[in-house]
Queue: 3 jobs
Job 1
Amino acid sequence: MLELSGLSVTYGKVRAVEDIALTAARGEAVALIGANGAGKSSILKAILGLATSSGSVRVDGTELTGRPSHARVMRGVALSPEGRHVFPQMSVLENLEMGFIGGDFPALCEDMLELFPRLRERSSQLAGSMSGGEQQMLAIARALMSRPKVLMLDEPTLGLAPIIVDQIRALIGLLKTKGMTVLLAEQNAEMALAATDRAYVLETGHITATGPSAKLAADPAIRRAYLGL
Ligand code: ATP
């Protein structure tokens, strides 16, 4: 479903990510783990066309390189960005509308309110007045409004209570059963490895390890470096 090859990301003369190869199948959740600044967000931005990159990004067999972001969203990629970036002066429903690209708007909203009951209770509340966890759910729901084939989540658990972290993990499981591909970038390696099927470890812009998440979670070197054990 998602295939990256030879992907490099640059900011001016700085090369943040170099020659990445990554795949994620339909209905598979894949984690990108690594320290602050390793390049996780840069990869997600490059997939959506929001960073200067070279190499190939394919979704469902279609080459996205060179296409503008909106065309990539139409092709089935969506991002819930790091820091959430909900529109604070807009209501929950208005935020959902910002992620809408076509189809049956009322039905899509209803799907989201079904998936996130908290958002239903707050559908007319201004997003800026909601809790961090609620804003995170809204950011994910807004991304889902485009009915993506590949959902990218950038640091969805940052600063949130364990109960919300569990909800996000359960949500990833549910989306997988619907056939969605999930690419999760997380500094919280423990959560990321528990929530996904496979993972890639990123160090200063390079992939240094990859494999089934359960296997990486049991690897002594990964445990020492990323799980604080
Ligand atoms: P974090 O979780 O902190 O976002 P990350 O793994 O997602 O970390 P990136 O944000 O992708 O890492 O950053 C990778 C590298 O690229 C870092 O060295 C960072 O300083 C650099 N970088 C990121 N964005 C920019 C930018 N807009 N201009 C210049 N350098 C940047």
Job 2
Amino acid sequence: DHGLSEADPEVRAIINKEKERQFKSLELIASENFTSRAVMEAVGSCLTNKYSEGLPGKRYYGGNEYIDELEILCQKRALAAFHLDENKWGVNVQPLSGSPANFEVYTAILNPHDRIMGLDLPHGGHLSHGFMTPKRRVSGTSIYFESMPYRLDESTGLVDYDMLEKTATLFRPKLIICGASAYPRDFDYPRMRKIADAVGAFLMMDMAHISGLVAASVVADPFEYCDIVTTTTHKSLRGPRGGMIFFKKDPVLGVDLESAINNAVFPGLQGGPHNHTIGGLAVCLQHAQSPEFKAYQNQVVSNCRALARRLVELGYTLVSGGSDNHLVLVDLRPLGIDGARVEKILDMASITLNKNSVPGDKSALVPGGIRIGSPAMTTRGFTEKEFTAIADFIHEGVQITIEAKGLASGSKVQEFLKFVSSPDFPLTDKVSN
Ligand code: PLP
């Protein structure tokens, strides 16, 4: 049996290049992180060889005594990491990622074409919460369910709860989803709960982006108010790529969430669990209970605030004016440029971040902002000082983008041509002859 370098030098070389890219750049994508060597070891282990359809003690394959032990350990650690009482909450650790986890919840508690409400994609929501254009139902969530988005108040950059309440009263959704991919503030869970109760809807939180911050109690706790909480495991939580679904054990709106959700995961939508991922997740969830992890999450938030502070000093407009979590959303439209151009220029300078739509954008193709996240570089030991320097680097990139846009638009050359074409410049005659 050969190691990768011997068995497949071509793939080894690609991995080496990607590793170098990751370590030589400033990684500011809000949904990315660097997981630990211990997690990597579990993910790259023999656990990947095993089939184990079903749940611990109820498998469709033999040889699962250790896999059962692992999954039970992972479940226990998941509940402990989020400070949950095992009598009140359960968890399924098998979802393959965040989008499948969300679709599994919908499959569990909704009938096809039931109504749901999530934050609009261009306002920071996620595709898996539903998205359609006037021409096309884009997200599978909008193909199989009727989705009506709620939005931000464009003047404040905060969720427009009043409008959500009015729309929910008319639309009467069966499920309301909190959570976002690009929202720098906490959700008002008590308000969302009230709205859900008033219309008889389930309330779900997709905490994918902020699950590490929730585990460390540095943001508001969604478990106090929601019936179901989903998450990815590879963002601020710093685990392997995967997903989890937490559910209340007592029936909600007459539905036994435990059996409905477990059945939706398997046999509903998935087959064999990825046991190597569950192994890595168990490692991550143990670490998530340590004082070191809490200190890390506090630093993620402080770093993000330092970044926001410096950007505001430099004159930038931030959606909602700042940040309570791990990301800032910069509105570049006042500078006459867009996020796509800035993303490209910064990419050339080894600074990796996302173009992102901002409230009020006319086109989704040319989004007016950028999203900047602090989790990954905080893992690499960056503090407020380095994040202040990052703001200065980004500023430099933005200035270059503004100049490059001026040049690329041809306006500088047009000015120049006007001069060479003037009557007192003889070139004009020569050219027309
Ligand atoms: N939910 C939210 C809020 C997300 O931001 C994301 C991904 O960015 C997902 C779900 C989907 O996760 P995955 O890419 O693992 O399917």
Job 3
Amino acid sequence: MARAKIALIGSGMIGGTLAHIAAREELGDVVLFDITEGVPQGKALDIAEATAVFGSDVALKGANDYADIADADVCIVTAGVPRKPGMSRDDLLGINLKVMKAVGEGIKKYAPNAFVICITNPLDAMVWALQKFSGLPVEKVVGMAGVLDSARFAYFLAEKTGISVEDIHAWTLGGHGDDMVPMVRHSTVGGLPLPELVAQGFLTQDELDAIVKRTRGGGGEIVALLKTGSAFYAPAESGIAMAKSYLSDKKRVLPVAAFLNGEYGLSGLYVGVPAVIGKDGVEKVIEFSTNEDEKAMFKKSVESVQGLIAACKEIDPSLA
Ligand code: A3D
């Protein structure tokens, strides 16, 4: 059987890390695409040389021409600009919307059958615009944010309780902003929902509240430390987890920005929800029960996403 083809649109910090992991895990042949000349070619050659050390038989290519992504099975989009200290994700909207137009048109022309994973911020608006510009079916275009936000939540819980990350299932829903919704009642450590974990004395309510707050600000914490860009290792791992579930029809339930058709009472926009990812892309959205508090937080988060979409429509009337 032919190897899968993975096109990475954007060859910066996340794109390069995605290429490294994809090659190392032998997920398929990798094309690194970027507008900057030399960078995708240099990263592709560097990683190709590393394949002889870790023993992966995959091809890597750097490209500045969309023709090179032809017939890709998966496209992971990180093209655009990341945050610098003091910037919110929303500050990136105007610049990255133009990038999504170019990327969407490239994918439409050369890789219309791909499963497309958008990582570019502000995520929920950019994935919405990318789907519109590419014209691909909504179930084949998804956003990566929830896997990362949930991983941060799980890691902080593991760090505080001393329990293996493997036995923690944490969930964050809603938009990928600081008002994302960490789902405390649905997240478990060793099968115990977090409120029960507090009741059993594994951690205090104050410690749990601090973890929720840190999860919401997790991206900003890294931006403040790095000073020159934003997180890339964990975002890349998160994109790979989604690509793997699609490529091997694994049907993992992952928190992703999925297009909603009535689920959670919403339609026509992308928001972070748990979804089954398999060979058809987003195969099913899972609906968590929500109490009044969670509903209010979800509503606030969705309103932020709706505001970003309205801003996109204002900037580019073809999206209206
Ligand atoms: P960076 O290292 O700057 O890479 C971006 C790359 O995109 C650069 O190599 C640019 O040359 C390239 N680029 C710019 N315009 C175009 C274009 N029109 N076509 C093709 N390539 C282009 O950034 P990064 O890799 O650190 O981050 C990439 C994006 O991911 C940013 O928007 C971040 O904000 C975002 N991000 C999202 C998350 C989520 O969880 C959603 C997490 C971390 C970063």
